[in-house]
């Protein structure tokens, strides 16, 4: 059976995800920029309310994956904190200026992640040589790679995903992610043979707060009234397509 990880960036979505037979919840903030580290309070509360294992994103800012010494230290502190809160799974990634794996930085992060499972996130999709990077991640002892097959979405990246699964040969899990929905999930799994998928099943609910003000906190007042949350119907449809939900 294909394992499913659902990515969320708020506690409401954590609660909703717990209604479904999934294997992990990836918790982050700011999904709109690819996901950043969640706050201490959100992470602590998520661990307390979730019966599904939490995988926490460790990424201090948006943009590239070339990190400074200060950012690396911040990530180490976040990993230590997550470990103390009982989180058993982290999601990391770091690259060099030449788009190779930043092995020195990754080792620094792993040095404070003793006993934790590790996913290398979609920084992998920017790697200059994904086949070399896969072998390096295996050698580092990382458990899985989240990737779209270096394409705009996992469906378009199926050819590379299939190659990576074959090369991995069960030494490391290849987890397909980006743009996965009920319409394409069967094709992605059948074509690539990935053992795991990663989806957000994002939806929107309207704010329950009533205000006559037109002041905008974000790009517009209208946008502020739309709260991004997990859509249970979308997640249910994905799970039904892979036989994980009746």
Number of domains: 1
Number of strands: 10
Read across the widest sheet, the strand sequence of neighbours is: 1-2-3-4-5-6-7-8
Reported for the largest beta sheet, the result is:
8 strands, parallel, barrel
Instruction: Output the radius of gyration.
Output: 18 Å
Strand content: 15-25%
Family: Belongs to the CutC family.
Organism: Ursidibacter maritimus
Pfam family, one: CutC
Subcellular location: Cytoplasm
Question: Any descriptors?
Answer:
single chain, 246 residues, 9 helices, alpha/beta, 18% strand, 8-stranded parallel beta barrel, two-stranded antiparallel sheet
Question: Would you mind describing this structure in some detail?
Answer:
- Strand 1, helix 1 (11-17) and strand 2 (24-27) form a beta-alpha-beta unit.
- The chain has nine helices and ten strands.
- The longest helix is centred in the N-terminal third of the chain and has 16 residues, at 69-84.
- By secondary structure, it is an alpha/beta fold.
- The two termini are 14 Å apart.
- It is globular, with a radius of gyration of 18 Å.
- Keywords: Cytoplasm.
């Amino acid at each position: 059976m294909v394992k499913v990880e659902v990515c969320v960036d708020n506690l409401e979505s954590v609660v909703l995800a717990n209604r479904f037979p999934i294997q992990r919840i990836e918790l982050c903030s700011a999904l709109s920029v690819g996901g950043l580290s969640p706050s201490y309070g959100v992470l602590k509360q998520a661990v307390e309310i979730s019966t599904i294992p939490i995988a926490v994103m460790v990424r201090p800012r948006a943009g590239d994956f070339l990190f400074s010494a200060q950012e690396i230290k911040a990530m180490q502190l976040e990993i230590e904190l997550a470990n103390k809160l009982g989180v058993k799974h982290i999601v990391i990634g770091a690259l060099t200026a030449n788009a190779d794996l930043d092995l020195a930085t990754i080792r620094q992060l792993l040095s404070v992640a003793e006993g934790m499972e590790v996913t290398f996130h979609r920084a992998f999709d920017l790697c200059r040589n994904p086949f070399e990077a896969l072998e390096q991640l295996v050698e580092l002892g990382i458990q899985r790679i989240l990737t779209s097959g270096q394409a705009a979405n996992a469906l378009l990246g199926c050819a590379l995903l299939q190659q990576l699964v074959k090369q991995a040969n069960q030494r490391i899990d290849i987890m397909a992610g980006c743009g996965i929905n009920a319409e394409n999930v069967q094709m992605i799994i059948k074509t690539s043979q990935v053992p795991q998928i990663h989806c957000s099943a994002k939806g929107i609910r309207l704010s329950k707060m009533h205000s006559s003000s037109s002041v905008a906190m974000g790009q517009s007042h209208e946008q502020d009234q739309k709260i991004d949350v997990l859509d249970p119907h979308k997640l249910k449809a994905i799970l039904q397509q892979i036989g994980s939900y009746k």
